[in-house]
C-alpha cells in the first residue's frame, strides 16, 4: 500500500496532494523568466513571453522580442516588438493576445503572432500613462482594466465591444493602491482595491468601502489579492502574513490562515481541478510556493466543450484533423464542417501570393453554398488583409444581401451598400436599422447635394430619413423638400413653423408668406389662398389687440368675429365678416349665438328683423331655449315656417298646439313625434286627440 | 336578450399566460439593475403597466419612487434611474437632458432605458448624438399583447394608425410579426391564415419568416386557434367612422374606455366622486348589455333592477336560519350586482342626456343617408351647418370624411367650400389636417373622371358584372378610389328591410348600426371564412384596391380539431371598434364559433380623426 500513497503529501487535515510531471516543456529559454512579461491563456492555451519589455534602445539586438509558445512549449511565433513599451500582456477568451502599452494603446495578436487590430483606452490614459493593467474574463468576454499614473481606473468589460468606463475617484488616494483586482459582480465589472488598512469597491458610479467578515485584527495593509476564475471567491494576503479566503460577495469567510511570512508574495492565484470540490490558493514568493486549501464546497465547472476543442484545432491550423473529428462525431454541418471550412477560407484569403480571382474561385469551389458559411465574414477577413477587390468578389457569393451591407460600408462602398440594404428590404422589414445605418454613413460621407440625389432614387430610404428628420433635424427636412421640388410638403413645413417655431407675428407672417409661395408653386390655389387669408387675419388680430386689448391672436375667423360681438364691437365684426367673406348662414348662426350668450334679447330681436333669416327661425327658438328663455323663444316660434313648426312648438313645450299643427298637416311622422312628447300628466287629452286623428286618417 | 353563447361554442384559449409572461420579463429586467431605483414611466404605458404589475410588485423589486416621463425636470435623488418608455425620439431627448444635466452637475448615476415593446435604431442613434449612449444601458420589454378581456388582446399602440397609414412608417410591422409569433408559439400553430391589406401582407410575411427561423418549436402541437384573419384598417374606414350605438361602443364614444377601464364622472356615479370601472366579461351586468343596441339597454336594466329588488324582498318571510344563509351566501353577490346596476343605469342616463336629443337623431339620420347614398345634397348641407355652428371640430371632420369615402371623394366645389368653412370655424392650422387626410385617403377630391360615377353605377345595373368591372377599370384614375357604393352593393351591406328592424332580436350584423349597415370589415371576414379563401370575391378585392394584397395561407397538416377550427383570431392593423367586436361576437353566436380580437388599439371615429389632426401645441 505504501507505494500508492508515498508521493502524496498532506494538505491541511483532510486533504492530500501529489506532484508529478505531465510533460516537459519543449522550449529552450535562454533568459530568465524574471525579465519577461509572461501570459498564459486560460484552459491550457498558449503562452506568450515578452523579453525586455522596457528597453527603449533602438538597437535591434536589444529590442523586445515577443514569443508565443503552445502550452507544452512548442514555439508558435517570434516577432520583434517595434511598438511602444508594454506594461501588461494577457490572453482573451478567444485566444487573442492583448498587449497593453504604456500609452494606453492595446495591440491585439492572434496565436501565430499575426497582428489583428489595436485600440486605445482613451485620452485620460494616454495623458497619465498606464501604471498597471489587467486583462480579465467575464461571462461576456474579456476585458482590460487600467490604473493610470493619476491613480484613476479605466476599464472596458469587453474588448470586442469596446465601451470605456472611467471609474470615479477614490477619496483620499494619494499613491498607487497597495494591490487591486477586477471583480465581476451582478454582471458588472468592478475594481477592488486596497489603500492602507481599507478596501474599496469601485463601479462606474460610486466608490464604496468594503469590510471582509471575520478579518483578523491588526492588518495595516493588504499586499496581494486574488479573485477566482469564476469571480465567486476572493483571497487577500495581509502585511501580517495572514490569508483570508471567502466569497467575492464579501458576505462569508470560508477559511483563514496565518503563514507568518511577511514578505509580499510575487503572485497569488486560485487553483482547483475539474470536478474537485476543493479549492485552494497558491501563493508564490521568490523561492517558495505555498498552497492554502479550504473546506469542500460544491461548485460547478464548465468543461471544455467539443466546440471549444474544434476552435483550438482551427486556431492551430489543423483543418483536416478538425474536419475528420466533425465527421466522426457526426456534428451537424453548421456547427461542424461548414464552420471549419469557413475558418479555412479566412486563412486562405491571407495567402498574398495567390491572385484575387484564384482565391475567390478556390473558396467558392470548396464551400459552394454549404449551409452556415458566411461569405461576408470571409470577405471581411479579406478586407482586413487589405484585399478590397477580393472582398467584393467574395461578397458576390453572399446570398443574403443584408449581410453584405456592413462590410460594404466599411469599405466605403456606401451607395452599393444602400441598394443592398434596400434589396434586403423584404426580408429585413424589421425596423429598418440596416437602411438607417447606411443612410447615416452616406450622410457623413457625401456632401449634401449628392446625399439627397442618392436618396431621391431610393423612395423607401427617403421616407425613412424624412421620419427621422421630422423629429431630429427640421432644417434638413426643409432642404430635402427643396431638393425634391416637393412644394406641397414645403408649404406644410412653413405652415407648421408659423405656429410652432415662430413666436412673433412678423416671423409668423413671414413663414406663412413662404408657405403661400410654395403652395403657389405646387399649384395648390386653395392652400395658397387659405394661407394668404391667414396672413391677413394675423395682421388684423395684431391690430385688434393693440386697439381694443384682449386676446385675438390665434383665434379662428369665426371666433374673432364672435369675440368682437361679445365685446360690443358690432361694426368691426361686420367689417371682418365682409373682409373674410363669411357666408350669410354662418354669420347668422354666429350672431345669434353670441347675442344669446350676451342675453341681449333686444339686439337679437332687432337682428332677427334686419332681413329674412337665411337659417330660418327654428335656430332662434333652439338657442333661446338653451338660454332658458322661453318667453323670447315663443316669439320666434311663431315665425318658424310650417315645415318646422311642430318642432318649434315642441321645443317651447306647447304640446297641444304642436298636436293641432301636426293633425292639420296630416303628417304621420310629425304626429308620432308629438306623441313621443306626450309625457306630462296633462298631455293625456292631446294624445287622445292625435290617436283619433290617426284612426280617422287610416279609415280614409 | 343577454346573448348567451351557444352550448356547442368552443372554449377560448387562456390568455392570462400573456400577462404572467410580461410580468416575469419585466421583473427580470428590473432586477438587472440591482438595488433601489426610481422608475420613470411614459404616460401612455401607465395603464397597460398597471394591468401587468401593480405598484406593490414594483416595490418588491426595489422600485422606490415612480415618476411620469413629462416635460418637467425630475427631482429624483436616487442613484439608479430606470426609464420605461415607448421607442420615441422625444423620450430619448428627455432622458438625454436628464443625463446631461447630471453630467454638468458632476453627478454619476446608473441609467437604464427599457423600451417597450422594442427599441428602434433611431432611438439609439439619438442617444448617441446626444452623447450619452455609453452612459445608459438599453433593454427591451417585449410586452406587446395585453389581454383586455377573455376575447380581446390589445397591443396598446394607438400611434400605429398614424405612423403606418399616414407617415408610411413600417417599423411597427416587426412588432406585429413578433406578437403573432408569440401567439403561435403559445397557442399555435395556426392552420389557416387569411389577410387583406398591404400591412397585413407584410406582417404575415415577416411573421412566417420568424416561424421558419425558429421552426420545430410548435410542430406536433395541436392548434388551439383554427383561423387567423389579418385586416388593414384602411380596407374599411367607413365602419370606424360611424357613430356607435351598441352599448360598449357608445360608452367608448361618450366616456372613452382606456385600456379596458372607464372613468365614470360624478354625473354617472351620482356622488361627488369619479369612479374607475373595469369593463369586461367579469362584470356580470356589463357582459349582458355590452353587445346590445342601446335602445334595449335601459329597459333591460330596469327589468334587472326589479328582479334584484324581488331577490332582496325575499328576506321578508325568512326565519333566522334562512336569513343567516341569505346574508352569508347571497347578499354579497346581490350587493355587488346592485352596485354595478346603479353604475350602468347612471351611465345610460348620462348617455341618453347627450345622445337621444334631437341633434343626435339628426346626426344618425345623416350618417344613414350617407351610407345608403341618398339625399347627398341634404347631407352636405347638414355637414356645412355642423361646421358653421362649431358643434365639434372632430365630429365635423368625421362627417366630411364619411361623405368623402362613401362618395369616392367630394366634388371639387364642395371640397373647396367645406374646407374653407372648416378653416373659418376651427382655425387655419387645419390646412395641415386636410393635407394629412388627403394623404391617408380619408378626405379627397373627386378626380375629373370620377364624376362619371353616377353613369357608371347605372351602367353596372344594365350590363353583366364582368363588363361593369371593365368599365370601372377604364374610369378609375391613378388615385385610389374607395368604391364604397359598389362594394356595398356587391356585399349587400345595406340590408333591405320590410317593416321595422327588430333590434331586440337582431337578424344580422347590421344591428350594431340600428339595422342600417353591415360593417364592411366584418362582412369581408364572414365571407372569407365561409368560402375558406377569396374565391369568388375577386371583384370585391379589386374594388378595395387590394388585388395584390389579399392572401390565403393554408397548411397541409390537418391536426386541427373541429373544436379549434371554430376559434378565429381576427387581427386589426390600425385599430378596431367595439361595434366591430360586437358584430363579430354576434356572428360567432350565429355560426357556433368564437372570435378572438387582436388589435393594435381599440379605436373609434374620434380617435381616428384626432390621429390625423394637427393641433397647436
Automatic annotation (TrEMBL), chain A:
Single GO molecular function: actin binding
Primary location class = membrane
Q: Could you give one GO CC term from the UniProt record? A: early endosome
Domain called Vps16 N-terminal: residue spans: 4-302
For membrane topology, the record states: Peripheral membrane protein
- Entry superkingdom: Eukaryota
Vps16 C-terminal domain ranges (all copies)? 373-696
Provide the GO biological process annotations. Answer: endosomal transport; intracellular protein transport; vacuole fusion, non-autophagic
**What InterPro entries does UniProt report for this protein, alphabetically?**
VPS16 (IPR016534), Vps16_C (IPR006925), Vps16_C_sf (IPR038132), Vps16_N (IPR006926)
Where does the record say this protein resides? Answer: Late endosome membrane; Lysosome membrane
Show the Pfam families listed in the entry.
Answer: Vps16_C, Vps16_N
Q: How does it assemble?
A: Core component of at least two putative endosomal tethering complexes, the homotypic fusion and vacuole protein sorting (HOPS) complex and the class C core vacuole/endosome tethering (CORVET) complex. Their common core is composed of the class C Vps proteins VPS11, VPS16, VPS18 and VPS33A, which in HOPS further associates with VPS39 and VPS41 and in CORVET with VPS8 and TGFBRAP1. Interacts with RAB5C. Interacts with STX17, MON1B. Associates with adapter protein complex 3 (AP-3) and clathrin:AP-3 complexes.
UniProt family annotation: Belongs to the VPS16 family.
Q: What is this protein called?
A: Vacuolar protein sorting-associated protein 16 homolog
Organism annotation: Catagonus wagneri
From TrEMBL, chain B:
Q: Which domain of life is it from?
A: Eukaryota
Q: What is this protein called?
A: Vacuolar protein sorting-associated protein 33B
What keywords sit in the KW lines?
Acetylation, Cytoplasmic vesicle, Endosome, Lysosome, Membrane, Phosphoprotein, Protein transport, Transport
Q: What is the lineage of its organism?
A: Eukaryota, Metazoa, Chordata, Craniata, Vertebrata
- Can you tell me which family this protein belongs to? Belongs to the STXBP/unc-18/SEC1 family.
Q: Could you tell me the membrane topology recorded for this protein?
A: Peripheral membrane protein
Q: Spell out the Gene3D superfamilies in the cross-references.
A: 1.25.40.850, 3.40.50.1910, 3.40.50.2060, Syntaxin Binding Protein 1, Chain A, domain 2 (3.90.830.10)
The processes (GO biological process) annotated in the record are:
collagen fibril organization; collagen metabolic process; endosome organization; intracellular protein transport; lysosome localization; megakaryocyte development; melanosome localization; membrane fusion
Q: Which GO terms describe its cellular component?
A: clathrin-coated vesicle; early endosome membrane; Golgi apparatus; HOPS complex; late endosome membrane; lysosomal membrane; perinuclear region of cytoplasm; platelet alpha granule
One MF term in the entry's GO annotations: protein-containing complex binding
Tell me where it resides: Cytoplasmic vesicle, Clathrin-coated vesicle; Early endosome; Late endosome membrane; Lysosome membrane
In terms of InterPro entries, this protein maps to: Sec-1-like_dom1, Sec-1-like_dom3a, Sec1-like, Sec1-like_dom2, Sec1-like_sf, VPS33_dom3b
Amino acid at each position: 500500500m505504501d507505494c500508492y500513497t508515498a508521493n502524496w503529501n498532506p494538505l491541511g487535515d483532510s486533504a492530500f496532494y501529489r506532484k508529478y510531471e505531465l510533460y516537459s516543456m519543449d522550449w529552450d529559454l535562454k533568459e530568465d523568466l524574471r525579465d519577461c512579461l509572461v501570459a498564459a491563456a486560460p484552459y491550457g492555451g498558449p503562452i506568450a513571453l515578452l523579453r525586455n519589455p522596457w528597453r527603449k534602445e533602438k538597437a535591434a539586438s536589444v529590442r523586445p522580442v515577443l514569443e508565443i509558445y503552445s502550452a507544452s512549449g512548442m514555439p508558435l511565433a517570434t516577432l520583434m516588438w517595434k511598438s511602444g513599451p508594454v506594461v501588461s500582456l494577457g490572453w482573451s477568451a478567444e485566444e487573442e493576445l492583448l498587449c497593453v502599452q504604456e500609452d494606453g494603446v492595446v495591440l491585439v495578436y492572434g496565436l501565430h503572432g499575426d497582428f489583428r487590430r489595436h485600440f486605445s483606452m482613451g485620452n485620460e490614459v494616454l495623458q497619465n500613462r498606464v501604471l498597471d493593467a489587467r486583462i480579465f474574463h467575464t461571462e461576456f468576454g474579456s476585458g482590460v482594466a487600467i490604473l493610470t499614473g493619476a491613480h484613476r481606473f479605466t476599464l472596458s468589460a469587453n474588448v470586442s465591444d469596446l465601451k470605456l468606463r472611467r471609474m470615479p475617484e477614490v477619496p483620499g488616494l494619494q499613491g498607487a493602491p497597495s494591490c487591486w483586482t477586477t471583480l465581476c459582480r451582478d454582471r458588472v465589472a468592478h475594481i477592488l482595491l486596497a489603500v492602507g488598512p481599507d478596501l474599496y469597491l469601485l463601479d462606474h458610479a460610486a466608490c464604496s468601502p468594503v469590510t471582509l467578515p471575520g478579518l483578523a485584527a491588526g492588518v495595516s495593509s493588504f499586499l496581494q489579492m486574488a479573485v477566482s476564475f469564476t469571480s465567486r471567491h476572493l483571497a487577500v494576503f495581509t502585511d501580517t502574513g495572514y490569508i483570508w479566503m471567502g466569497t467575492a460577495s464579501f458576505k462569508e469567510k470560508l477559511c483563514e490562515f496565518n503563514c507568518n511570512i511577511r514578505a509580499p508574495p510575487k503572485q497569488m492565484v486560485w487553483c482547483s481541478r475539474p470536478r474537485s470540490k476543493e479549492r485552494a490558493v497558491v501563493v508564490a514568493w521568490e523561492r517558495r510556493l505555498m498552497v492554502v486549501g479550504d473546506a469542500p464546497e460544491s461548485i460547478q465547472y464548465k468543461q471544455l466543450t467539443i466546440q471549444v476543442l474544434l476552435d483550438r484545432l482551427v486556431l492551430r491550423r489543423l483543418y483536416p484533423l478538425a474536419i475528420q473529428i466533425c465527421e466522426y462525431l457526426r456534428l451537424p454541418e453548421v456547427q461542424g464542417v461548414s464552420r471549419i471550412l469557413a475558418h479555412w477560407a479566412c486563412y486562405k484569403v491571407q495567402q498574398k501570393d495567390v491572385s484575387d480571382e484564384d482565391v475567390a474561385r478556390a473558396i467558392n469551389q470548396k464551400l459552394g453554398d454549404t449551409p452556415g458559411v458566411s461569405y461576408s465574414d470571409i470577405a471581411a477577413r479579406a478586407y482586413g488583409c487589405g484585399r478590397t477587390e477580393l472582398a467584393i468578389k467574395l461578397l458576390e457569393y453572399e446570398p443574403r444581401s443584408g449581410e453584405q451591407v456592413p462590410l460594404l460600408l466599411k469599405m466605403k462602398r456606401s451607395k452599393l451598400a444602400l441598394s443592398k440594404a434596400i434589396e434586403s428590404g423584404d426580408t429585413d422589414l424589421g425596423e429598418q436599422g440596416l437602411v438607417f445605418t447606411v443612410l447615416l454613413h452616406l450622410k457623413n460621407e457625401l456632401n449634401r447635394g449628392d446625399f439627397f440625389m442618392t436618396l431621391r432614387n431610393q423612395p423607401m430610404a427617403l421616407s425613412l430619413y424624412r421620419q427621422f428628420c421630422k423629429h431630429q433635424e427640421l432644417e434638413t427636412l426643409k432642404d430635402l423638400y427643396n431638393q425634391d421640388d416637393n412644394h406641397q410638403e414645403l408649404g406644410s413645413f412653413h405652415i407648421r413653423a408659423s405656429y410652432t417655431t415662430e413666436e412673433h407675428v412678423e416671423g409668423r407672417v413671414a413663414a406663412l408668406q413662404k408657405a403661400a409661395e410654395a403652395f403657389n408653386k405646387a399649384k395648390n390655389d386653395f392652400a395658397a389662398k387659405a394661407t394668404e387669408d391667414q396672413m391677413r387675419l394675423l395682421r388684423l388680430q395684431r391690430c385688434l389687440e393693440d386697439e381694443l386689448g384682449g386676446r385675438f391672436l390665434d383665434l379662428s375667423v369665426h371666433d374673432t368675429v364672435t369675440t368682437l360681438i361679445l365685446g360690443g364691437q358690432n361694426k368691426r365684426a361686420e367689417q371682418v365678416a365682409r373682409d373674410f367673406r363669411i357666408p350669410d348662414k354662418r354669420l347668422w348662426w354666429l350672431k345669434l349665438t353670441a347675442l344669446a350668450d350676451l342675453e341681449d334679447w333686444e339686439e337679437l330681436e332687432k337682428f332677427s328683423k334686419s332681413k329674412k333669416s337665411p337659417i330660418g327661425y327654428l335656430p332662434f327658438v333652439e338657442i333661446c331655449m338653451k338660454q332658458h328663455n322661453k318667453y323670447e323663444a315663443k316669439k320666434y316660434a311663431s315665425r318658424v315656417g310650417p315645415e318646422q313648426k311642430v318642432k318649434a312648438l315642441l321645443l317651447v313645450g306647447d304640446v297641444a298646439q304642436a298636436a293641432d299643427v301636426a293633425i292639420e298637416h296630416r303628417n304621420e311622422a310629425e304626429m308620432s313625434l308629438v306623441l313621443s312628447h306626450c309625457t306630462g300628466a296633462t298631455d293625456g287629452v292631446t294624445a287622445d286627440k292625435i290617436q283619433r286623428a290617426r284612426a280617422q286618417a287610416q279609415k280614409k | 336578450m343577454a346573448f348567451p353563447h351557444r352550448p356547442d361554442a368552443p372554449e377560448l384559449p387562456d390568455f392570462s399566460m400573456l400577462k404572467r409572461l410580461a410580468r416575469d420579463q419585466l421583473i427580470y429586467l428590473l432586477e438587472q439593475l440591482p438595488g433601489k431605483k426610481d422608475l420613470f414611466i411614459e404616460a401612455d404605458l401607465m395603464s397597460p403597466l398597471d394591468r401587468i404589475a401593480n405598484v406593490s410588485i414594483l416595490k418588491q423589486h426595489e422600485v422606490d419612487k415612480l415618476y411620469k416621463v413629462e416635460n418637467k425636470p425630475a427631482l429624483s435623488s436616487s442613484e439608479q434611474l430606470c426609464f420605461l418608455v415607448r421607442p420615441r425620439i422625444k423620450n430619448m431627448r428627455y432622458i438625454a437632458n436628464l443625463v446631461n444635466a447630471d453630467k454638468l452637475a458632476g453627478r454619476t448615476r446608473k441609467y437604464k432605458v427599457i423600451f417597450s415593446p422594442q427599441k428602434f435604431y433611431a432611438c439609439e442613434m439619438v442617444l448617441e448624438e446626444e452623447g450619452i449612449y455609453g452612459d445608459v444601458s438599453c433593454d427591451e420589454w417585449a410586452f406587446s399583447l395585453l389581454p383586455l378581456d377573455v376575447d380581446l388582446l390589445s397591443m396598446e399602440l394607438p400611434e400605429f394608425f398614424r405612423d403606418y397609414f399616414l407617415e408610411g412608417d413600417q417599423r411597427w410591422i416587426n412588432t406585429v410579426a413578433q406578437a403573432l409569433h408569440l401567439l403561435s408559439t403559445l397557442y399555435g400553430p395556426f392552420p389557416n391564415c387569411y389577410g387583406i391589406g398591404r400591412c397585413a401582407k407584410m406582417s404575415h410575411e415577416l411573421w412566417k419568416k420568424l416561424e421558419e427561423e425558429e421552426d420545430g418549436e410548435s410542430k406536433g402541437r395541436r392548434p388551439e386557434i383554427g383561423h387567423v384573419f389579418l385586416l388593414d384598417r384602411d380596407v374599411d374606414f367607413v365602419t370606424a367612422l360611424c357613430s356607435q350605438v351598441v352599448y360598449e361602443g357608445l360608452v367608448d364614444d361618450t366616456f372613452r374606455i382606456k385600456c379596458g377601464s372607464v372613468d365614470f364622472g360624478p354625473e354617472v356615479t351620482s356622488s361627488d366622486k369619479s369612479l374607475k370601472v373595469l369593463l369586461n366579461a367579469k362584470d356580470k351586468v356589463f357582459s349582458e348589455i355590452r353587445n346590445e343596441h342601446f335602445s334595449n339597454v335601459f329597459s333591460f336594466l330596469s327589468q334587472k333592477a326589479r328582479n334584484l329588488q324581488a331577490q332582496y324582498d325575499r328576506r321578508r318571510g325568512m326565519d333566522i336560519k334562512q336569513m343567516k344563509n341569505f346574508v352569508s351566501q347571497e347578499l354579497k353577490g346581490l350587493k355587488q350586482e346592485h352596485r354595478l346596476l346603479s353604475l350602468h343605469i347612471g351611465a345610460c342616463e348620462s348617455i341618453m342626456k347627450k345622445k337621444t336629443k334631437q341633434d343626435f337623431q339628426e346626426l344618425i339620420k345623416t350618417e344613414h343617408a350617407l351610407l345608403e347614398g341618398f339625399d347627398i345634397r341634404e347631407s352636405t348641407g347638414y355637414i356645412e351647418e355642423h361646421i358653421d355652428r362649431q358643434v365639434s371640430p372632430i365630429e365635423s371632420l368625421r362627417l366630411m370624411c364619411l361623405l368623402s369615402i362613401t362618395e369616392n371623394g367630394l366634388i371639387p366645389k364642395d371640397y373647396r367650400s367645406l374646407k374653407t368653412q372648416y378653416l373659418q370655424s376651427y382655425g387655419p392650422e387645419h390646412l395641415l389636417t386636410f393635407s394629412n387626410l388627403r394623404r391617408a385617403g380619408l378626405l379627397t377630391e373627386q378626380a375629373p373622371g370620377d364624376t362619371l360615377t353616377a353613369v357608371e353605377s347605372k351602367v353596372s345595373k344594365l350590363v353583366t358584372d364582368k363588363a361593369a368591372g371593365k368599365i370601372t377599370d377604364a374610369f378609375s384614375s391613378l388615385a385610389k378610389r374607395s368604391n364604397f357604393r359598389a362594394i356595398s352593393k356587391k356585399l349587400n351591406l345595406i340590408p333591405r328591410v320590410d317593416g321595422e328592424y327588430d333590434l331586440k332580436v337582431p337578424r344580422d350584423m347590421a344591428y350594431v348600426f340600428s339595422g342600417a349597415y353591415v360593417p364592411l370589415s366584418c362582412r369581408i371576414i364572414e365571407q372569407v371564412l365561409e368560402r375558406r379563401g377569396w374565391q369568388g370575391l375577386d371583384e370585391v378585392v379589386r374594388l378595395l384596391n387590394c388585388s395584390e394584397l389579399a392572401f390565403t395561407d393554408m397548411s397541409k397538416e390537418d391536426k386541427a380539431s373541429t373544436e379549434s377550427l371554430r376559434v378565429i383570431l381576427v387581427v386589426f392593423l390600425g385599430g378596431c371598434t367595439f361595434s366591430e367586436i360586437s358584430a363579430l361576437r354576434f356572428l360567432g353566436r350565429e355560426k357556433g364559433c368564437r372570435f378572438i380580437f387582436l388589435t393594435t388599439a381599440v379605436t373609434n371615429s374620434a380617435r381616428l380623426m384626432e390621429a390625423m389632426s394637427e393641433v397647436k401645441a
